[in-house]
Amino acid sequence: MSQPRPPTTASVPTGKAQESGPVEMVELHRRMTAHLFPAFSSEDERFLALALCGEAGELANIVKKRWRDGVDMTAEAREEIADIHVYLALIAKCFGLDEQGINDEVVRKLRKVMERHNL
Ligand SMILES: [Mg+2]
Fold first, then answer.
1. CB atoms within 10 A of CB 89
2. Which domain covers residue 73, as residue numbers?
3. What distance in angstroms lies between residue 116's CA and the mean position of ligand 1's atoms?
4. Residue 1 counted as domain residue
5. C-alpha of residue 80 to centroid of ligand 1, in Å
6. Alpha carbon of 116 to those of 13, 37, 63, 98, 106: distances in Å?
């Protein structure tokens, strides 16, 4: 079993960020997109909800192509999963949840559903 990693950090493989060590995922995203999107887009839940759906759509399209064409798109799927993860983390932050908070909320929700079904 692997060791748990810090929940909101990511190692950066190249560039200045590597020199500064682990960078918070949301901060890295902000730096990467600062020249592409208005500043509010990392904090506006409306933008983030649409972006999350867009990335989920990109993943669904890859799954469709794997199913339809029988091609290996594992690398592409992993990239879309990473995109989804970033937008999920950003929108969760709008609602006061960090990575650990998301995990805690998942457990709370699953327990709630299990109780509802007497499991
Ligand atoms: Mg994408």
1. 20
2. 9-116
3. 36
4. no
5. 5
6. 45, 42, 32, 27, 15
Q: Which residues are within 8 A (CB) of 58 and not within 5 positions of it... i.e. 6 or more apart?
A: 80, 83
Task: Give one word for 3, left, alpha or beta, with left for phi > 0 and alpha for psi -120 to 50.
Answer: beta
Ligand 1 centroid vs 40 CA: distance in angstroms?
19
| Per-residue pLDDT tens listing for the chain (119 residues) | 344 444 444 444 444 544 444 568 878 888 888 888 887 788 899 999 999 999 999 999 999 999 999 999 999 999 999 999 999 999 999 999 999 999 999 999 999 999 999 99
CA of 55 to the centre of ligand 1 (A): 5
Q: How many structural domains comprise the chain?
A: 1
Q: Give the count of beta carbons closer than 10 Å to the beta carbon of residue 99.
A: 19
CATH number of the domain that residue 73 is part of? 1.10.287.1080
